Amino acid sequence: MGGVPPFGYRVENRKLLVDEDSARHVRWIFDRFLEIGSCTELAREVGTRGIRTPRGNRIDKKYIYRMLSNRAYIGEAVHKGDSYPGEHDAIIDREAWDKVHAILQESPRKRAARTRADTPALLKGLLFGPDGAAFSPTHTCKGGRLYRYYVSQTVLKHGAGACPVGRVPAGAIEAAVIDQLRAVFRQPEIIAGTWKAARTHAADITEADARAALQQLDPLWDELFPAEQARIVALLVDRVDIGTDGLNVGLRVDGLSSLAREMLAGGIGEAA
User: 140 and 253 in contact (C-beta within 8 Å)?
Assistant: First the structure.
């Protein structure tokens, strides 16, 4: 019984007892993971709620993964890799534990694909047509398949033909914007601008740090959960203007510097 007890417990007379104040946070973390399936996203929500470790440290995705894997929460004790019934009370029931671990056994890419349909539209509030009107996300179902689109508000108000670009397939326009963002991460002038902006918040960041952080996101992108992708797009993109001859993506330099600092701090990782 040496060391720090698991989050959610306290030690009295060399025995683990449930600490109800922190145990409710443990139950919420398990329940929330079942809803979103992402330690990365969950760590961000935990931070927003102000939940910290017993020592007052920030809870990151690795800490959450260790929590979700700690068999103490189902009333077991582990010794040399084997688990045994413990003398303490469980905080999590076995059914919830099994559901959590069924999710953890999936690959991050598979989990991301499974949750993609439930994610808000990537360009919601960012896409505008040649007449300046916003585009709204919509979808139709045909033959059991979901087809997503963005439709001009002008068309919604005045009918088809009211705008030269009335409706665009969501997948195609989102992929085009992502391709432009990925190209941006490799442009020297963008890297230099990001470094200068980030340096105002963290003086020790070098230009090489900024370059490494932005280039790191490119191969990582497909592993991120859709909700995380949407958050990053909202952080980086000021607006997307679409016309008959193509599209223009307006960037937020302050967003690029914030993203670079997150990457360097390890705040963005694989979807798990």
Answer: no
DSSP bridge partners of 100 = none
Instruction: Let me know: does 190 contact 184? Beta carbons within 8 Å.
Output: yes
CA 146, distance to chain mean position in Å, is 23
Cα distance between residue 98 and residue 84, in whole Å? 17
β-pairing verdict for 15-18 and 9-12: antiparallel
d(CA 250, CA 175): 16
Q: In this structure, what are the phi and psi dihedrals at residue 139, rounded to the nearest 5 degrees?
A: -155, 160
| 132, two tokens | 């300046």
Residue where the block lists tokens 């193509």: 246
Question: How confident is the model over 200-236, as pLDDT tens digits?
Answer: 766 667 778 777 777 777 777 777 777 778 888 888 8
Q: What is the pTM of this model?
A: 0.53
CA angle 243–249–251, rounded 5-degree value = 155
Sign of the torsion formed by the C-alpha atoms of 42, 46, 48 and 52? negative
Mean pLDDT by 10 residues, the chain (272 residues): 80 91 94 85 87 89 93 87 84 93 74 54 89 90 82 88 86 88 76 72 72 72 75 87 89 74 61 43
Element (H, E) at 56: none
Q: Are 167 and 149 in contact (CB under 8 A)?
A: yes
Show me where the domains of the chain are located: 9-105, 117-264
Query: Could you tell me which CATH number the domain at 9-105 has?
Result: 3.90.1750.20
Within 10 angstroms of residue 233's Cβ, the number of other Cβ atoms is 20
